[in-house]
Every structure is written in C-alpha cells, then in structure tokens.
Amino acid sequence: MSLIGRDFLSTADFTRDELTELIDLAADFKSGGHDERSLLGKSVALVFFNPSLRTRTSMEIAIYQLGGHPVTLDVGKGSWSIEHRESAVMDADKTEHIKEAARVLSRYAAGIGVRAFPEMLNYAAEMTDPVVRGFARYSDAPVFNLESARHHPFQGLADVMTIREKLGGLSGNRVVLSWAYHPKPLPMAVPNSFALIAAQFGLDLTIACPPEYDLGEEAMDEIKSASEANGGRVRISRDFREACGGARIVYAKSWGSKLFYGRGAEEIACRQKYRDWRIDEDVMATTDEGWFMHCLPVRRNVVVTDGVLDGRWSAAIDQAENRLHVQKAVLASIL
Ligand code: CP
Fold first, then answer.
1. Spatial CA neighbour of 128 closest among 186, 75, 86, 166
2. Closest ligand 1 atom to the C-alpha of 50?
C-alpha cells in the first residue's frame, strides 16, 4: 500500500497493517538491511514552537541519512512569531499568519514537520490541534506531527517498535501506562498516543492514574474502539503498584489534569497528594521480567528512581534510538 503524500498527524489515520509496514521498514533501517536516499535533492522544514532534544536531532539526522536537507525554524526566535486563529486581528505580538507560513514553506520544502505544545488554557480548543492541523490545512506538502497538544505519533510508533523488540511480539502482552508525579502539569500527547497505538496493536493495556488524571473522553473513546477492533483490552486502575504486578511493560509518564485545565495553581495543589506515584526497583521487581519505558526527558528520582533508569529494566534509550528509525521509515514512505 502506498503512503505517498499523506500527512502524519496521528496513528489513528493509519491501519494496523500500514503501521506494521512502517515498523518493519524501521527495523530494516536499524539493522542496516535497508539503505536509501529517497530525499536526495529535497528539503524538509522543521518548525518548532517548543524545545526538543530527541525530536529535533533525530528528525534532522533522519532527513540527512535519507539524502535530504533539514531546515529547522525556532518560531519567534530567528523566524517570525505565528498566529493560527482564523480571522484574527493581528494587532498584538504575532507577526505572520499560519496561512502564509504553511503555504510559503510548502513551496520550498517537500514536507513540513511541526511541534506545537498546548498552552494548557482551553482543553476543548487545544485538543483539536489547531496549529499542527492548521499547517496541514494550508500546506501543499505533507505535514508531520512532531508533538501536538493531543498526539505524538512518532513517539508512539517508536514505543511499539521497542516493545516488539523487547518482547518479540505485541498482541496480548500486558502493558501498564502509569501516571507519575511531576512538579508541573505536562501535556497529554504522549499518553494519548501510547495508549492509542497500544490499542491499535491489540495489547492488554492498563492505564493507572489517579481519578483527577483520567485521559479525556474523546481520547478514551478512540483508544477503546481501536482496542475492540484489534482484539485488545483496556482497563483503568487507581493503584499503580497493583497494576504493575505481572506486567511486561511499565510505561511511566506524567500528564496534566483535564479537570483543572487552565487552573495551574489548583492543578499543582491536586498533584501533591500523589507524590509517591514513582516507579522504583520494588515496583519493577513485581513485574513479569518487565521493561521500564519513558519517552524522555525524565526527572530522575521524581518520576523514576536512578536504580530503575540505570538498571536492567530500562528500555528508555532504545526507545529514543528508535525515534530515528521510525522517522526514516515514515519520511521515506510519505515523501
Ligand atoms: N520524547 C521526545 O519527544 O523528546 P524531545 O521533547 O526531546 O523531542
């Protein structure tokens, strides 16, 4: 099947077979069994509204290894600030509208990658991914989501590739996505995307989180229907220690509360009750020879102990490496 010319905004837009093909191709790139220069003579624009270590570096290197040329823009720092609201009266601090920015960049580049986190102010509006989807609407070239308010599809794809490597397969394996304490409310893109792709591959998924940190209904509806369609299972647990018992994968991540969205001080007060939601060696010892996963960056001895992150359980560096390979697979397949 051909993926040429499609946007890559969420794994929900791709079938399980298409995602499997992408992971197979990523594995071929990783093993050295496949090499190609399909981006020779092409440029890809990478537009960052927010900081990054892994995404920025691995995208630039992926494009270079495919023979192409990355052009990275830091919005508002070296390139103009960008307005995305339709019909905005641009008399404040924004210099350029997304309509012109996307149209112009797509005249230069074969594809556009965009990272745009939520401002954590308006849940309903931000979960529509207005910036990344605005680029997709106005660009004539394919758009790649480098993490939006709602989704981080490259991370999800690298995550399932890592699970497949570690466990030898996907369907039916018991994985836990555990909320973790962090001093600040963080976006929900990584848990949304991990739970979604785990469901798309029929994993036996437990989402462990305090009641205030349930993922949004629209995300859960998408996750549950993907799980049903693919023979998986989704459960919610309020006890992360109990949930991790017997698990093959423990994926820790902190995220913000939908209930307190836009009310930062109340959110931070709420999360103080859950300071003990941290993955340590005792938790990992109860798993079924389980692997610890995290998308990184991670706060040591807050989200996870040094002993786990530096120990035999950790797959976090492999996960980060696999970002490079899956991005090469997606870029080569789409461009
Ligand atoms: N996991 C991830 O996307 O890392 P960066 O924020 O460093 O890109």
1. 86
2. 6
